[in-house]
Design brief:
By secondary structure, the chain is α/β, with parallel strands linked by helices. The protein is 49% helix and 11% strand. The protein contains 30 helices and 18 strands. Helix 13 crosses helix 27 and helix 15 packs antiparallel against helix 16. The structure holds (S)-3-Hydroxyhexanoyl-CoA. The site of (S)-3-Hydroxyhexanoyl-CoA (3H9) has 27 residues, from helix 2, helix 3, strand 6, helix 4 and helix 13.
Length: 739
């Protein structure tokens, strides 16, 4: 049926409710046939003399339209085809905009991408005040730009600066914010959404369908300032130059979509709406066939798939309900975990620390995050106080008798953690789950202290917990499937992307980070200036350079973990000579204000005295940035491949997500496994061999890379290599839990 998914309900007052409800789909998306469907339904409405006005809405319970169907977009292979798809979408939007009867969008739930573009083409918009209502053009997060007129209509609707901000970041705004921006005309409770939209539509019967432009209806000071900037060529140049400069500070030119958004908005402003649409369609086609978009789209599908993964091979295993969480250790990690448990997962927490001061510090930290929410108006004063009551403090195990999961986040001291396992088992229920937030100690060892090791697991959070999106869950050979599924579910409720990995020294994330940071230390030891190394990695796409990161993590922590890695994996994890001198000089990094960089004072940048401590001259400036980036990045990628081959990872998907969301691996490269697939295992292998010749066995390639370079397989795609089948013959390549 041509009109499948779009129905017309005629009301007595002359309003037609056009409802979109794609059968069998969780959300409405714009699929290939939407052009025909929309054209035919709108023709029917136009030709019906009884219909005076239209309300366009969704039949889905809690969403409007989530944009174009990303799977359909992924199937488009050429720039020309992409351009044609955009043009077809634009034509439908132009048809709605030029419709002879008023069309008002009634929005409840997400209106994203092509969904918001549809609403923008309508003559007015009413949104529900529900928390679920979110409006945005997130295409840039997929490496794309809005291709159905959004780059032209949004600036005309809310002004260039606000529109650029929304499109360049892909951020979603609430209905209230949308009203403030002028993106919607009214915000009402969901119960009266349709009625309000219908009234608005009827009130517009006989009026000119759409005002000419945003700039022509300027009222307030901000808008006049905006006009001054956008209407004259000099102002325009300032505005766009500034936007581009700011953008490049963040993207370093690695995200072509953002650059093209600026170009296309500018084109529309200077050469008019139709020229802007042409530029938009061309840019959409170009981006759709880019490797950056392919990688960013793969991340969208990977995160969507993870939401449905229970973390074990048997999909029928169910998570048990978690009604209360016990937290051991009220430091930054412990308090951060308590915050996401109460505020995001809505589960109460019992927070224990050694003494009252420790508990108070943890509670103050939580209050600090909550106050930040109040300041940003995400939470009212009353809500904040109620939320605070969800975490209760204790210095004993009182109140632990009915907790379902205990998460420990105390010092990295095995005997302390073992003692806690025993204490929790004495105080708690028989089936209480004990989760350790350790970043380096083997979970198998911690589980050794348990009477029922099947309930012991690792939950490795990243700092700061309320901001970092990844949770790495670590299972041992004994961890029960229901325990894994329960912790995965808890992590999802806390708002995290959750990957499950097998136990092994450094698990996945700490293990792949270590050799990259080590390689940066080798470069320092070779006399390459510190800023040059960090800058090369920022240009490659990491958000923080590896030397700066060493300061952030703590040089002492790095040294401690480094020793564990060295014992487990052998020489390839050995640090360069001289690094221990930093510890002797009491340089622990940012936390004590002494590291590779300067802290506290007015002067910023590298602490030049660090070279003297290390006994190196930073004169080796001729190493090309590209060489620095390849050396550091390949250490990361190669170690990730070893983790895959040894079965630490369950899939390449998890390895990519863990790297991107936990360690800042450049999203536009898709993660280490997408990266290898994209440039080819042969190429990666060749480069590793070259580096091995030059720098020694720390660059010896992971066995799985040799295998797939031979077999022609890939990590993703139609003929993927399986994890856990390429351990290699080197005794020291595998994790040794007794280290
Ligand atoms: C675009 O619009 C281009 C246009 O400018 C130009 C056109 C010419 N496509 O995430 P969830 C599916 S680009 C396909 O678990 P949540 C999703 O795969 C697009 N599928 O729910 C999953 O399917 P399944 C711009 C989509 O509540 C199901 O819906 N739009 C799409 O956690 C539930 O999703 C975006 O970038 C889609 N567009 O999150 C928005 N959207 O159950 C992308 C959803 O079969 N979407 N699905 O596995 C999202 O960000 C989140 O899905 C959303 C809901 C926030 C909407």
């Amino acid at each position: 049926m041509a009109n499948e998914g779009l129905s017309i309900e005629k009301r007595d007052d002359g309003v037609a409710i056009v409802r979109m409800d794609l059968p069998g789909e969780p959300m409405n998306t714009l699929k290939a046939d939407f052009v025909d469907t929309f054209t035919s339904v709108f023709a029917e409405v136009e030709n019906d003399p009884e219909i005076k006005a239209v309300v366009f809405t969704s039949g889905k319970k809690d969403s409007f339209i989530a944009g174009a169907d990303i799977a359909m977009l992924e199937g488009i292979s050429s720039a020309e085809e992409g351009e044609r798809a955009a043009k077809a979408g634009q034509e439908v939007m132009n048809r709605i905009e030029g419709f002879s009867k008023p069309v008002v969008a009634a929005i409840h739930g997400v209106a994203l991408g092509g969904g918001l573009e549809t609403a923008l083409a309508c003559h007015a918009r009413v949104a529900s005040d529900s928390k679920k209502t979110k409006l945005g053009l997130p295409e840039s997060q997929l490496g794309l730009l809005p291709g159905a007129g959004g780059t032209q209509r949004l600036p005309r609707q809310i002004g260039v600066q606000a529109a650029l901000d929304m499109m360049l970041t892909g951020k979603q705004v609430s209905a209230k914010k949308a009203l403030k921006l002028g993106l919607v005309d009214d915000v009402v409770p969901p119960s009266i959404l349709l009625e309000t939209a219908a009234e608005l539509a009827l009130s517009r019967v006989g009026h000119k369908p759409k005002s000419e432009s945003f700039i022509d209806q300027l009222k307030d000071k901000d808008a006049i300032a905006e006009a001054a900037l956008t209407k004259n060529p000099v102002g325009r140049k300032v505005l766009f130059d500034q936007a581009r400069k700011q953008l490049h500070k963040q993207t370093r030119g690695n995200y072509p979509a953002q650059d093209l958004i600026i170009d296309v908005v500018k084109a529309g402003l200077e050469d008019g709406f139709p020229a802007g649409l042409d530029a938009e369609a061309r840019a959409f086609g170009r981006l759709l066939s880019s490797p950056e978009a392919a990688n960013l789209i793969s991340i969208f599908f990977a995160t969507t798939a993870l939401k449905k993964d229970n973390g074990v091979d048997d999909p029928s295993v169910k998570a048990r309900e978690v009604k209360k969480v016990g937290m051991l250790g009220a430091g930054l990690m412990g308090a951060g975990i308590a915050y996401v448990t109460t505020a995001v997962a809505k589960i109460p927490v019992r927070l224990k620390d050694r003494d009252a001061d420790g508990v108070m510090a943890g509670l103050r930290y939580i209050r600090g995050i909550i106050d930040g929410q109040v300041k940003r108006k995400r939470l009212g004063e009353q809500g904040a106080n109620q939320l605070m009551l969800q975490t209760t403090g204790t210095t004993s195990y009182r109140g632990f008798q009915d907790v379902d999961v205990v998460i420990e986040a105390v010092f990295e001291d095995l005997s302390l953690k073992e003692q806690m396992v025993r204490d929790v088992e004495a105080a708690g229920r028989e089936d209480v789950i004990f989760a350790s937030n350790t970043s380096s100690l083997p979970i198998t060892k911690i589980a050794g202290a348990s009477k029922h090791p099947e309930t012991v697991i690792g939950m490795h959070y990243f700092s700061p917990v309320h901001k970092m999106p990844l949770l790495e869950i670590i299972v041992t050979d004994k961890t029960a499937d229901w325990v894994t599924a329960t912790c995965v579910e808890l992590g999802k409720k806390q708002g995290k992307h959750v990957i499950v990995v097998r136990d092994g020294v450094g698990f996945y994330t700490s293990r792949v980070l270590a050799p990259m940071m080590n390689e940066a230390a080798y470069l320092v030891a070779e006399g390459v200036p510190i800023e040059k190394i960090d800058n090369a990695m920022l240009n490659w796409g990491f958000p923080v350079g590896p030397i700066k990161l060493t300061d952030e993590v703590g040089i002492d922590v790095g040294a401690k973990v480094g020793k564990i890695m060295l014992a487990a994996f052998g020489e390839r994890m050995a640090p360069p000579d001289g690094m221990s001198k930093l510890i002797e000089d009491e340089r622990y990094g940012r936390k004590n204000g002494r590291g590779f960089y300067l802290y506290g004072g007015k002067k910023k940048g590298v602490d030049e005295s660090v070279y003297e401590v290390l006994g190196v001259e930073p004169t080796n400036k001729s190493v090309p940035d590209e060489d620095i980036a390849w050396r550091c990045a390949l250490q990361f990628v190669n170690e990730a491949c070893r983790c895959f081959g040894e079965g630490i990872l369950r899939s390449a998907r998890d390895g990519d997500i863990g790297a991107v969301f936990g360690l800042g691996f450049p999203p536009f490269r898709g993660g280490p496994f997408r990266f290898v697939d994209q440039i080819g295992a042969k190429e990666v292998l060749g480069r590793l061999r070259e580096l091995e010749k030059k720098h020694g066995p720390r660059f010896s390639p992971a066995p799985v890379l040799e295998e797939i370079a031979r077999s022609g397989q890939t990590f993703h795609g139609d003929n993927p290599v399986q994890p856990g089948q390429s351990r290699g013959s080197h005794a020291q390549s595998g994790p040794q839990l007794n280290a």
